[in-house]
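Rather than argue in generalities, we have chosen a single entry, letters for residues, whole numbers for local backbone shapes, without further comment.
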Amino acid sequence: MNSQTLAPQTSTARLIADSPVTSGPAPVADPYVVFDRVQKSYDGQSLVVKDLNLTIGKGEFLTMLGPSGSGKTTCLMMLAGFETATSGEIRLDGKNINDVPPHKRGIGMVFQNYALFPHMTIGENLAFPLEVRALGKSEREEKISAPSTWCRWGSSATAAPRSCRAASSSVSRLPARWFSTPSWS
């Protein structure tokens, strides 16, 4: 795998090959996710993620672009807690989460090969994790209305995933963080 580094920016991150960022996280008015000098190695020699310094503000939308093997998924896996950082610190809302288990982070991940429940509508698929967390119907509807607007699904939210490929594809790409709340507090 190639070692790549994400450069911090206010609204997007770019992958920069073999060029570590050493200045620390960029200042953001309301930092929510912070990767501070994070590195990841699977074999103890080659770095898959090299000196990652990235700050994402609360409410900010971030896109990570890069070739296969550049560390994008590894970064998300570390944030979700499914992988551990070899070194560095990952903070969520000011709290170091390096040692917080995945089930207490309130972060979910959807992989490229997504799976939606075929017996539920697109809207029901969106609402399901909120229902599991015992949110009331009005709060669930409020939370799923924003992504429905962003993705311009219109009436597709009441359709089955198999009948609307574009909508079901965009459902799978919604950030799971939009729907969850950390459980350590």
Q: What stands out?
A: DSSP finds four helices and six strands in the chain.
